[in-house]
Each structure stands twice: as C-alpha cells, then as structure tokens.
Amino acid sequence: MSENHSCIGCGADIQTENPKELGYAPPSSLEKEMVICQRCFRLKNYNEIQPVSLTDDDFLRILNGLGEQQGLIVKIVDIFDFNGSWLPGLHRFVGKNPVLLVANKADLLPKSVKPKKVINWIKREAKSLGLQPIDVILVSAHKGIGMSEVIDAIEMHRDGKDVFVVGSTNVGKSTFINRIIKQATGEGNIITTSHFPGTTLDMIEIPLDDGAAIYDTPGIINHHQMAHHIDSSELKYITPKKEIKPKVYQQNEGQTLFIGALARFDFVKGERSAFTIYAANDLPIHRTKLEKADSLYEEHKGELLAPPSKEHIHLLPELVRHEFAIKEGKTDVVISGLGWITVQHPNVVVAAHAPKGVEVFIRPSLI
Ligand code: GDP
C-alpha cells in the first residue's frame, strides 16, 4: 500500500490510526485511487462538520497562516471552561483581523444569571488576557440560543470577507458550524470542500453567497483539562449537560469538600464562610474534616469517593495541592474542565487539590 496519500477534499495527509485526528480515513479507503478523509466525507455527504484536533505545532502553523489572511476571526470559547478553552496566543497571530468572541454553552449557566452581566465579565477577562474583541456574543449552539444574533454579527463584521472559525476542542465548534450550515443552506444542499488555495492550512470551506467563505479550522487540544486524565467512559460524569445547579456549603475552618475523587477543596483558614460549587450536577460532593482528608482519600477513592470508579482510578494522576490566600470575596477557584468554587467572603486561605497537570487558578467570580 502506498504511503503519503492526501485527502482530495482538504489536502490533509491521510492516516488510518486515529479517527479523532486530522486526515483520518478507514484503512479500506486506501484501496481507492482518490482518498477522502472522514471529515470531508461527512461534510460532503451529510453537510456535517466533525471535530478534529491537532498538535500544538500544527495549530501554531494555522494561527500563523491566519495572520496572513484577511477576514473575520470567530473565536469560540466554552463558558463553562472559559480560561481553559481560551487559546492564549491568538491575539498575537491575527494581525489586524477583527475577532468576534463567541461564548458557547450558555445553557449551562443558571437561568438566574443575567446574560448582560456574563458578557461584561467576558469583556473584562478578554481585555486582561490581551484581546479586544469587536463584539462578544453568548450562545448555546446545542439549543440554538443566540444563533441568529451571531449570524447577523458575522455578516456585519465580515464586511464581505472570509470568516475563520477557531476554538480548542470540545468548545462546541462543530455544533456551532453545523447550525450555521443548516441555516445558510437549508437541508439537502451539497457543500463543496476544498483545500485552502495556495496554502497548507487544513481548513474546511463553507461557501457564502457572495463568493467569500467560512473556514473551519481544526480544534487544538487543551492538555490542562481534567478530561485528559479520566477514562472516556467516565467523561459523562464531569461534563455538565444541563443548567448547573450551584451547591452552597457553609464551612468552618478545617473542613474539606471532595468532588468525587477528582478534586478536593480545603478551607484552611478564616471565619465561617460560604463556598458555592459549580460543577456537573451529578458529581457527588463529600464533606469531611481536613485532618481526616488524606486518609479518607487513600482508603475510599474509587468507592465512597467516585468518579473515577475503582476500575479507572489508576488512570488519575496524584492530586496536587494549590493554596490561595484570598483577599476579596466573590473569587472563583477554577479547576480547568471540572468547574469552579466561588469563595463568597474575603480574607480566607483555601487549597484546591487537583490531578497533576490540571490547571487550577483564581479569577473574579463569573456569577
Ligand atoms: P468541538 O470539538 O469544539 O467541535 O465540539 P463539539 O461540537 O463536538 O461539541 C463538544 C461537546 O460539547 C459535545 O458533547 C456537544 O454536545 C457539547 N456542546 C456543544 N454545544 C453545546 C452547547 O451549546 N451547550 C452544551 N451544554 N453543550 C454543548
């Protein structure tokens, strides 16, 4: 069998090993003269975008390429994992191109939270992270909320030029683009795929009426997320599907909260205080005394403290302790991909324990 096939749709090098990565085609397809990767195949035949992911180097190459294009950059982030899905370097690469920031999965936020407040928070965070978006829109691609608004904004800001959609994996980029395709083409139209002219950018093209196009770029994997440290069968326990119901705990100094066996939150020092956990509703929270926490974890992880279950607990890296002296109330302690704990009162010392490699940090409270 000859090596070095490239996809006749997007031009990616064909590989037959990993269906989640770029250029995957089933081994049987290599027997054909012209090979099309699974992603282009689905787009061509079902008008459906499939998520693919890239290594960091490939992604940098694509970002570099974006700076050389002219058009609107639509950057999608996951509001539940805002910082984890942020794509930190983007603003340095986009050149003069405007960036429309789309925060997806708005349906997960408690309904009592005003969208305007969330949008203002996003604007402040974006600014402190070095990005000045042309606009910020909150959507739920899954539920179809905010999609007309975002389509109008794209149309207005693209100014007749191309659109490049970027985002890390799992932000819902495919769901988002599939919604746009449906609205733009209706059912039944065949969408052509093409290699981005004159470059090696692995993008998929969705033609627009005026000759411009929307390009889907592959998502980058965020290695700091919890999702990479648990078995895929248990991902469903940490990924919220519905509106998050915040859980409030009144804690005394010296108490601790376990979130399954995935994380632990110690109240090290301070007056009696309220802490609010925002995480998938079904994740069990277990409260105990700080002095007992280490031994409880060793004896009961995978059982009383789960997920992960006994079968998969060995995949979880050891927990690492991150201590924070919090001066201001309403501060979130974020555990990337798992959720966050809002510290409601000022002047407390807390410690979050998370699997080695998972990012833990504080930010002004989102809600
Ligand atoms: P991609 O990797 O960025 O292309 O992401 P996908 O479109 O494959 O979506 C990743 C996951 O997020 C899937 O489980 C989707 O069902 C889910 N998802 C996508 N959009 C939304 C949304 O608006 N709300 C919620 N709650 N989940 C979403």
UniProtKB/TrEMBL annotation:
InterPro entries found in the cross-reference section: G_CP_dom, GTP-bd, GTP-bd_ribosome_bgen_YqeH, Mito_lipid_metab_GTPase, NOA1/YqeH-like_C, P-loop_NTPase
Domain of life of the native organism: Bacteria
SUPFAM superfamilies cross-referenced by the UniProt entry: P-loop containing nucleoside triphosphate hydrolases (SSF52540)
CDD domains given in the database record: YqeH
Positions of the CP-type G domain: 60-223
Protein name, entry field: Ribosome biogenesis GTPase YqeH
Upper taxonomic lineage: Bacteria, Bacillati, Bacillota, Bacilli, Bacillales
